[in-house]
Design a protein that fits this description.
The complex is a heterodimer of chains A (343) and B (452). Chain A has 343 residues and is mostly helical. Helix content of chain A is 38%, strand content 5%. Chain A has a two-stranded antiparallel sheet with strand order 2-3. The longest helix of chain A is centred in the first third of the chain and has 22 residues, at 3-24. Chain B has helices spanning 21-30, 34-48, 68-71, 165-168, 198-202, 215-221, 248-253, 417-424, and strands at 115-116, 135-136, 150-155, 161-164, 174-181, 205-214, 231-236, 243-247, 256-261, 264-265, 275-277, 290-296, 311-312, 318-319, 328-333, 338-340, 344-353, 359-365, 373-374, 376-377, 387-395, 400-408, 437-440, 446-451. In chain B, strand 7 and strand 8 form a beta hairpin. Chain B is globular, with a radius of gyration of 26 Å.
Chain lengths: 343, 452
């Protein structure tokens, strides 16, 4: 196409687009919104339906998936998708028999941990979710081939596909045909439609409805303090008081001044993994403070560990590098750690 | 301690009870000097902390001259107050900090995928203060720059469109009061009593006045293909980009995209600057940080409608797409983890709601469900909104079991645990709307119980 013809064509396209855009809003609300471009729709329309509409082409093997899994997924989900320390386990408690019937027998029997694969009827959901939301701290960073690979590894752990399997847009249907709980879902209930039929039909009896009343379940004494001091979870004036669940302390009325650098700890997600006192995934800040107390280069050492991340000192779960942390915030956190990380 | 403290339910004595007989007699004789004023202050401080041990005089006693809170003018009555705009954004009084959103320990191991419960035990009326609205995130909460936020509508529409916040805030606006309840509210109680207070049993419940644009307005603006459209996919802009399928009937009825909540912009924890509001439907469908709506002809099978938010039935089948929050009520005060001050009169108060319409009636029982009385409903009584009920009660110091039971305008009566478990067993996690029982012991302590 010549330059002038090209320009002419572009102008024509521009005119047509402008006409389309104005036509789109020619309804009740002139000037509101605009037509989405194909590139915009492609960037955001990432959902994959159970009939695989929206599934991008690509492929990944179980072997590739295993490597990715160990690198990006296992710290939370465990090497075999069976860990329970951060999220409920993904894999386990399904059988070859379940794969045949499409119903997970353990769901009926109960008494076992309900893993994701026990409940999941559709392989599309796993692809969609891994692609949109995983890894936990870097959602949407996996390319389609990597999603296929990671999912192939998971499906192999659940014995849905063999170890030499390559998952692709063409083999997803095979995986679907072997999902252990593919026949385990029901829509036979009244809770989708606003006028659906309820499960129960209680009657509004007013007099002598229940001559004997027996308490069948109550909170055991040892569990009463599990949610902390209930006295402090109610107003200290008014119709009632919170029930005291903790031993009295002498200077209860004195509010402690918080020195915790809450803002940077929250903004950078530190509190998701580290408790003030104790371990969540990584060690508690006070545990860190204790361990390095008095160390000659304590400040520099802690700054380096926070900046660069690492694993091995406190367990196998890696701490991601905190490159985004400002120097001022890093200083604040480290000074607080050197003070012993007081509450 | 006075003998009164060992009487049933006598948690706290009247403040004047903390002055000794000798003290009162001295004051009568010699008046209040500085030292005596100081003594009195200390006695009251101790009384307020509930740890006083000074011999008591009651208001009815002959030596009683009056309450020092009246006789002694307090500093707020004898000093200059603070200027206007001292706090550019106002805060509750410093004495109110006990009522906070709180997590239930052990419920989730990561705080970004956890729940913070609303302190229903101390709230009044039907509107949840925005700062106490419950939180449930799937991958943490984010604070979106509203000038960079976009809403895309695509799928079965004539023209897929993009809207900025500028666009959305120019469209026809509606303001409506609705409750939001997580499908997993009261989940921990399916098998047995597990948590102590109404904050943890029922606190995944809030109610706000939402302002925004009806979904029907937006979908019509894009030219929705009403012949083929059956479902809507809603998707968030946060890291989890959570998705849920909405039925087209719900979407075109009263669902809206909301930017306002209780007169201000919706809070970041609740989806700032834009969240989906699907009245009557469980909270997980009210997608926060809403970035996209796709019109389709099939359900989407999202993670939170397959492995989560599906109700496990006794036969091992999972009910998927259980959405409506059926009628439910709970007494919020007195409630578990509280202790009554004394025998005598109490205003018993609570909340009732239905995802299918309006609250028609609330009955309250003080004997575990044998005899019932109808409570007074406060206005407004709105469809798919919390309704506040109140009823007077004179506690005679004997053990009691308090219950409330709602009837909605479809005639549905809130079920007992027995009725609910007979159909759903004890493992379904979601949609527990059974009648709640609070036991009042002779000591005045109120605790969470279930009855058979």
């Amino acid at each position: 196409m010549s330059r002038s013809a090209d320009r002419c064509m572009r102008m024509l396209v521009a005119v047509v687009l402008a006409w389309c855009a104005s036509a789109a809003s020619a309804g009740g609300y002139p000037g509101i919104g605009r037509a989405a471009t194909q590139a915009e729709i492609k960037a955001w329309d990432i959902d994959v339906r159970p009939d695989f509409v929206g599934l991008p082409p690509g492929s990944g093997s179980v072997a590739d998936g295993e490597m990715l899994w160990i690198e990006k997924c296992s710290s939370c989900h465990g090497d075999f998708g069976d860990a329970n320390h951060v999220f409920p386990p993904l894999i386990g408690n399904t059988t070859l028999q379940d794969i045949e019937t499409g119903r997970v027998a353990a769901l009926k029997e109960g008494g076992t941990t309900r893993t994701t694969i026990m409940k999941m009827p559709t392989v599309s959901t796993l692809w969609d979710f891994i692609h949109r939301a995983m890894p936990w701290d870097k959602p949407k960073s996996l390319k389609p081939d990597e999603v296929y690979a990671v999912l192939a590894y998971l499906l192999n752990l659940a014995e849905i596909v063999p170890a030499d399997f390559v998952l692709s847009e063409k083999t997803m249907a095979y995986a679907q045909s072997r999902m252990p709980n593919r026949n385990g879902m029901t829509r036979d209930h009244g809770m989708w439609d606003i006028d659906g039929k309820p499960d129960t039909a209680n009657k509004a009896c007013m007099k002598n409805c229940r001559p004997t009343v027996e308490v069948s379940s109550a909170l055991p004494d040892f569990a009463k303090a599990a949610h902390g001091e209930l006295l402090k979870q109610n107003r200290e004036y008014g119709a009632i008081r919170g029930t005291r669940t903790m031993p009295e302390t002498k200077d209860e009325a004195v509010e402690e001044v918080s020195k915790v650098p809450t803002a940077p700890l929250t903004a950078n997600g530190c509190l998701g993994c580290h408790g003030i006192e104790g371990k969540i995934i990584g060690p508690g800040f006070q545990q860190v403070a204790d361990k390095y107390k008095g160390k000659a280069d304590e400040a520099e050492y802690l700054k380096g560990r926070i900046r660069n991340g690492g694993a091995g000192t406190w367990g196998d779960v890696a701490m991601p590098p905190m490159a985004q942390l400002s120097d001022a915030d890093l200083d604040l956190i480290v000074r607080w750690l050197i003070d012993g990380a007081p509450r | 301690m006075s003998q009164d403290t060992s009487r049933p339910g006598r948690l706290l004595r009247a403040p004047e009870s903390f002055l000794s007989n000798d003290f009162v007699k001295t004051v009568n004789k010699d008046g209040l000097d500085e030292q005596r004023r100081d003594w009195m202050r200390k006695a009251f401080t101790a009384a307020a902390a509930g740890v006083a041990g000074i011999g008591a005089v009651r208001a009815a006693d002959p030596g009683f001259i009056g309450d020092p809170n009246i006789l002694e003018l307090p500093p707020w009555t004898t000093s200059l107050g603070l200027p206007v705009a001292h706090r550019g954004y106002g805060m509750p009084a410093k004495y109110e900090m006990n009522l906070m959103r709180r997590e239930s320990p052990g419920l989730a191991s990561v705080a970004q995928a956890s729940v913070a419960f609303t302190p229903l035990q101390g709230l009044f009326g039907i509107i949840t203060p925005s700062g106490l609205h419950f939180e449930r995130h799937h991958q943490g909460w984010v604070e979106i720059d509203p000038s960079k936020h976009r809403l895309m509508i695509n799928g079965l529409v004539k023209t897929p469109k993009v809207y900025t916040m500028d666009d959305l805030m120019r469209l026809p606006q509606v303001s409506r009061i609705h409750f939001i309840e997580c499908g997993a509210n009261t989940a921990m109680e399916w098998g047995n009593v597990a948590v102590p207070t109404v904050q943890y049993t029922h606190g995944m419940l809030s109610c706000s006045e939402y302002t925004g644009v009806l979904l029907s307005t937006l979908l019509e603006d894009c030219g929705i293909d009403l012949k083929r459209a059956k479902y809507l996919l809603a998707e968030g802009a946060d890291g989890s980009s959570m998705t849920r399928t909405i039925g087209i009937e719900r979407a075109l009825d009263d669902a809206m995209v909301a930017f306002g909540s209780n007169g201000e912009m919706i809070r970041p924890e609740n989806g700032y600057p834009l969240r989906l509001v699907v009245p009557g439907v469980q909270g997980v469908s009210w997608v926060k940080w809403l970035r996209r709506l796709e019109v389709g002809d099939q359900r989407y099978g999202a993670k939170d409608e397959t492995s989560g938010y599906a109700d496990l039935m006794p036969d091992g089948m999972l009910r998927e797409y259980s959405s409506i929050q059926e009628a439910k009520s709970v007494i919020t005060s007195p409630s578990g983890g509280q202790t009554l001050l004394d025998k005598g009169y109490y205003n018993v108060t609570g909340l009732a709601w239905s995802g299918r319409g309006k609250v028609k009636r609330v009955d309250v029982s003080f004997d575990g469900g044998n005899q019932w009385q109808t409570a007074r409903l406060e206005t407004p009584i709105l469809s798919k909104a919390l309704t506040r009920f109140n009823i007077g009660w004179v506690w005679n110091g004997e053990p009691a079991i308090l219950q409330s039971r709602v009837i909605d305008d479809t005639g549905f009566v809130q079920p007992t645990y027995g009725q609910l478990r007979a159909v759903r067993g004890t493992r379904s996690v979601y949609h527990n709307n059974a009648i709640q029982s609070w036991k009042v012991a002779a000591s005045g302590e109120v605790s969470n119980v279930q009855i058979s």
